[in-house]
Amino acid sequence: MTLVTVSIAEKTDQTTDDAVVSRAFQPERVTIRFPIEVWGTDLMGKDFTEAGRTESITRHGATIVIKRLLGPQDTVRIVRAGGKSEALARIVGQTGIHPDGNVYGINLQDPESQFWGIRFPPISENKRAVSRVLLQCRTCKAREVVYLDEIEAEVFETNNWLSRSCNHCSDWTRWSLAADDVKPGDDDVVTPAGEKPKTKAASGADKRKHRRLKMQTNGCIREPGVDETLVAVVDVSRGGIKFRTPKKYPVHKWVEIAVPFTRGAANIFVPARITWTKYGNPGDLHEYGLAYIKQSKEQLLEELSQVRGKPPKK
User: Fold this and answer.
1) Which residue would you say has higher pLDDT here, 132 or 200?
2) Which of 61, 81, 108 is the last residue of a domain?
3) Are residues 298 and 217 in the same domain?
């Protein structure tokens, strides 16, 4: 037997930095379960067709759950329930194991397609967002990721729905939270097309720079290998949130956060970092400031090096 040893001391810092940056640059992920069929060739070289589901989706890919063993760089064909939409995708790698199958990350070969029937707004609109939600038109069932500004977030928090212009309906309709579990037959929805016109609320809110909005709502923090943690959100702004929880987090901790968070809804998790803490007495709630991640990869590495007191990697 040949033993292989690895020098942990030489690789720990770099591995940690790379892992932090990798997690920070995960795109917005919508936790939604679409029933799918996967066609391809498994690790044993056998052709297969197998039912599965998504765990989450992004602009250009998804995490999917199927029982087959697949290898990185394999190409598969993904068919949405009902067989009305299909796409080729590349297996990026395995990210975990669920009781009902293996979890794989995939990238769609046509990143500009709206394969999932969900419209993602332009990245530029993210700059005015204080929260992000997946909404569904109550009339035509179209789904859109929506960036809420201060006024829209306040209205949504009060009513649990928004009045928005629907391109498919060609009218103003009510939009509410989309469910996180799409049943077979419920997936026959329209694919939104074109850009949503700006509402009066959106254009008016742009004049109010980073106003903190008092909002008592739930948030959910996700960390790799750790159970999700529900937190009490105190206020929100375009740059981040303030929240309270009995759990302790260190400053500079990297996490994913969904605000607002509703069980049974398709919540959107985005990368973020703990920027300050205010610990309470034992048994009390601790208060935290959390900032959304918007820096470039180089800026993130520079910030990490300053925190750890070492020169940045060139």
Assistant:
1) 132
2) 108
3) yes
